[in-house]
User: Fold these one by one.
Assistant:
Number 1:
Amino acid sequence: MAVVLARSLRVGDIKDPVALFKAYSTEKIHGLERRVHDEMEQKKKELRQMVGERYRKLMQVADTIGDMKL
């Protein structure tokens, strides 16, 4: 149940941590923390992948431009 309620909480809606602790049990807050941490790790992974792809494309473009000059 804690995980279900934690999923209904939106991280962007959390403005006051004190109010969060007044409204929810520590178990529910731990569920939210786990979800936020998992989302954060997923976003890091996606960002690394995107940067790698963009870098490869940039290198291909640079090679193409170099070939055009020859």
Number 2:
Amino acid sequence: GKESQLVIPSMKARMLREVQILEKDPPHGVCAWPAKDRLDRFEAQIRGPEDSPYSEGVFKLDLEIPSRYPFEPPKVKFVTPIYHPNIDNGGRVCLDTLKMPPKGSWSPSINLSTVLASIRLLMATPNPQDGLVADITEQYNADRKGFEAAARQWTAKHARDGTNKTLDTSNLTASNQQQSGKDEMKSVKCTEGESKPVPEEDPPKKRRGLKILRPRNGKKQKTSSSEGSVKQIS
């Protein structure tokens, strides 16, 4: 197979930081992880934004990291077909963030987390002024309801949880343990104990390590000194 191009220590350090960001603080509705034990290719899944025709789907993406990253943007491709003015049938994404200046707005300060959040925002709010697929762009402008119906049909056909199989990330951990020097690159798990790749926001009571004490009859509940302080949740 192709050898990883990420041999420059500073670049490797940058990518390991990005893995940590994606693991500890991923954008809402987004999950991404290194492909196998490489740092020059990532796999991602995006849950369709709420209040969009993609809301019932989960979309897979591939990200290729160029040798000059972060001075060049990653190459992003939708693996799951999507009906969208700015994403063609080959999965290419037309987005300023993914283009070099002066045509685009890429800069080395942008990271993969920002890229994926921007793509999810593009799914929620297409940009017909920079359309990539002419007929879908025309339909989006002239017949919004027709566009939304077609986008929902594509989502139901190609991106439903049942048909769009979850990518298995367990091999990341296994391969890392087998190879010395790879242990710092841990697998990025989308969620613990669930099969769905990009879960909806869990209610606060399900979040690990967080206690919620609800007042009864308008009175605050007392906590024992051993529990320590309890965060107020608005």
